[in-house]
Structure formats: structure tokens, C-alpha cells
Task: structure prediction
Amino acid sequence: MNADISKYNKTQNPSDKQICEILANAADQELPEAESKIWHAHPVWFIDGNPIVGYSKQKAGIRLMFWSGADFGEDLLLIRGSKFKDASIFYTQVEQINAIDLKRWLKKSKEIQWDYKNIVKRKGQLVRLK
Result:
């Protein structure tokens, strides 16, 4: 696990720390080609410089977000807006994490990607990569 992500996880309360560690370990295992780092103050995994998945502590719990998740076709992932293609799920307890769902979503995060890396260059226009 990336050292900075490990530090981030350790700053969480015990329950949230467990959730974060499960999410980080799953992302590391399912996305071995990805670069992981702290980006905008929370853990994010990138493929070829494009953000794929990340998580953050929010009021509602630990938010697991997939940048292109709106196109995954997954009912459990919440889609917030229409401008971007992100979707997420919130966890407040370790028991809420379904390992099978998580693995499937991480696999889809490699297969379905929108180009967030170049969104500024394209003046807010998203282009599908995969």
C-alpha cells in the first residue's frame, strides 16, 4: 500500500480505518497497473494518469467513488449529477462492504473509462476512452 494512503487511513477513527484499509487493499489487488496517491486530500488510483477510483471521509461515511461509475450499470452506485460520469457508494460499517460487488466495480473501472485527465484541456468535455 502507498505510504501516504496508509497514513491517511491511520488518521481515521477505528471503524472508518477498517473500511479504508479494505478499500485500499482491494484497489491495490484489482488494479496492479494503477498508480495510487493522495490527490485533493484523499486516496485515488490512476491508470495512465486518469483517475479511476478513490475514497474520502464525508459526513455520510466513507465515500467510495468511481470516476466513470455512472456507466457501470450498477444499481447500488449512486449517480449525483449529469455533467460528470462519477458514481459512488457510502460505507459506515465494514459489514456493508460486499467483496464480490467491490471486485466487479474495480474490474469495470478498468474497462469503462472517461478521460478526466484531459478535461481542462477539452474545456469540460468528457471523451470516452474505453
Q: What stands out?
A: The chain has one domain: 3-111. The mean pLDDT is 91. The radius of gyration is 14 Å.
